[in-house]
Amino acid sequence: MSPTVIVTKADHDKTVKVAKGGQVTVKLTWSPGTGYDWVITKIDPLLLRQEGEASTEPAKEPMPGAPEIRVFHFRALKPGTTALEFQSRRAFEKDAPSMGEFRVQVLIGE
């Protein structure tokens, strides 16, 4: 198992494996100008810990209004399996349905 596992939209609904102490990096496309952002909706804090705030990477061909990549980093704390889920939401629309969902199962080994 690699010390760092990169997870993208292509991994939706899949299981990813990471070693205890390793890092899971989640990269999801977002359009900051729309007000939507990816929000963590499910995580087991005993197994995974978010490291720092989410950051942003520019798109491959940056243009005004073009989608960017939202990047989240997590540390695998101990062996086990946990769901990691996100929803694309607007912070100012608490009761509105999400505009997208992303989830993976994270299997943490020794």
TrEMBL record:
Keyword Secreted: no
Keywords (A to Z) from UniProt: Protease inhibitor, Thiol protease inhibitor
Keyword Aminoacyl-tRNA synthetase: no
Gene3D superfamilies: 2.60.40.2020
Domain Proteinase inhibitor I42 chagasin: 18-106
One of the record's GO molecular function terms: cysteine-type endopeptidase inhibitor activity
Name of the molecule in the record: Protease inhibitor I42 family protein
Organism name: Candidatus Geothrix skivensis
